[in-house]
Design a protein that fits this description.
- This protein is of the alpha/beta class.
- It has helices spanning 14-27, 40-50, 66-71, 89-96, 108-119, 124-138, 188-194, 240-249; strands at 5-10, 31-37, 54-57, 79-84, 101-103, 145-150, 153-158, 162-168, 171-176, 181-184, 201-205, 208-211, 215-219, 224-227, 232-234.
- The strands form 4 sheets. Strands 2-1-3-4-5 form a 5-stranded parallel sheet, with helices on both faces. Strands 10-9-8-12-11 form a 5-stranded antiparallel sheet, covered by helices on one side.
- α4 (89-96) packs antiparallel against α6.
- The radius of gyration is 20 Å and the shape is elongated.
Length: 252
């Protein structure tokens, strides 16, 4: 792609802004930093005026947070990469919405990966959808939708429609209640961490994560779950008792 990626850096720390800008200049020459901002109100004005392709946005800032900046970007078509020192709940929301994030101190590899995603992310309708999804997810303790990366874009799916997730090395297979399947380039740990606070999802095996609302039958003899989509899922020996206790609590 010949077009330069016009970006704005938003961070209340001058050193952080300078470090990120220098890294972009050195390692990502197709990225053009058109402005840097230390405060959210200033950043909103610059974004509306300059209409960048992307914003590198910090989370914890005085008076306003990066979240509050997002709330003021309705109708603005730019992508967002979060740059944060906080490896907490927000990370889950960012990943679910398929908007990238980089943890401080900034890894050059992570920065290059994020910029590579930006290069592929010029469908503005998808950008706006991801921003809306991010805002919706941030309003709840757990995400209600996933933005799954597929060839040429993203597919937005409801958590309630997921039957189970199977791990296959560096990939995962997402199975749905209607029998369909999506393969994504994410490891099981990603989904395990992502859904850790979602009570309807249980990791019954190192390779299987199930939606307990989609279970039709538990066969004790074979330690197998029969899901509503008529597929079988194995339960690990050390997970049997925990699963049974969970099912009893859910009156299943």
């Amino acid at each position: 792609m010949n077009k330069r990626i016009r970006t704005i850096i938003v961070d209340d720390e001058e050193r952080a802004r300078r470090v990120l800008e220098n890294l972009l200049v050195k390692y990502c020459p197709d990225v053009e930093v058109v402005a840097t901002c230390s405060l959210v109100p200033e950043a909103v004005e610059k974004i509306q005026l300059l209409k960048p392709d992307a914003v590198f946005l910090d989370i914890e800032m005085p008076e306003y947070s990066g979240f509050e900046l997002l709330e003021q970007l309705e109708g603005v078509e730019c992508d967002v990469v979060f740059v944060t020192a906080y490896n907490q709940y927000a990370i889950r929301a960012f990943e679910v919405s398929a908007i990238d994030y980089i943890l401080k101190p900034i890894s050059i590899e992570k920065l290059e990966l994020a910029v590579n995603k930006l290069r592929k992310s010029y469908d503005h309708s998808q950008i706006e959808n991801r921003l809306k999804l991010l805002q919706q997810n941030l309003e709840s303790k757990t995400p209600k939708k996933l933005a799954l990366p597929i060839q040429g874009g993203f597919e937005y799916v409801k958590l309630a429609d997921i039957s189970h997730i199977n791990a296959d090395g560096s990939y995962c297979e997402i199975y749905f209640s209607n029998g369909s399947r999506i393969i994504v380039s994410k490891k099981m740990k990603f989904f395990h961490d992502l859904l850790a606070n979602e009570p309807n999802f249980f990791r019954c095996h190192r390779s299987h994560l199930v939606n307990i609302n989609q279970i039709n039958l538990y066969q004790k003899g074979t330690a197998t779950l029969l899901m509503e989509n008529e597929l079988d899922v194995n339960v690990a020996r050390d997970k049997k008792r925990e699963l049974l206790n969970l099912l009893e609590k859910q009156n299943l």
